[in-house]
Amino acid sequence: MAKKPSKQQVYTLLVEVGRKEGDGLPKGATGAGLLCYASGVDEAEAVRETVAILKQADMNPLDVTGYGTEEERVAQGMDIDDAERELMARALEENSVIVAQVTPFYDDDEDDDED
User: Could you name the domain of life of the organism this protein comes from (predicted)?
Assistant: First the structure.
């Protein structure tokens, strides 16, 4: 009898976080964008797990944009390099959330500098 394929898939998520004490973001940053690979039986579960883990890490998740599974992204014509595929495979193998990239946001447009 063939082994049942796992229902878990890896979803690419972009999470926008705001500031929170202890979040580890650079001084002066107003928040950040986190590129995450998260496993789940569906995208909703992957989002819930990612938000829960980020909150445990003293992050302040504000918004999550889902970009789908690797297959969905390839079908949309997105290019996925080997390093990204390795991180996705690791997220699936470990049934975890991998934060692949953190891009801090700075509020350059404001006149009220609080340095």
Answer: Bacteria
